[in-house]
Amino acid sequence: MPIYNKNAELVEQIVDGELVVLDQESGQIHQFNATASEIWTCLNGKTTTDEIISHIAEHYGIDLDVAKKDVELTLQQLQEQNLIKV
Prior knowledge:
Elements: E1 5-6, E2 10-15, E3 18-23, E4 28-31, H1 34-42, H2 49-60, H3 64-80, E5 84-85
Antiparallel strand pairs: 1-5, 2-3, 3-4
């Protein structure tokens, strides 16, 4: 499974308990829900997608298949928004 890195042009901040990411290149601000925030924290350039799926399944006490769908969808959306890359 691929390993993702965050775009270097991003600024992260916690605002009112929620992760907010500013894409300085596009000027867009992205507000993440709890699951997306948890996935985001795993994106360190070393953690595989399978490891992220296992972490999410354990963290939320859900089935691996459910976690896989959630993680893959979130990663796809983050990639489409140019927030992450392989």
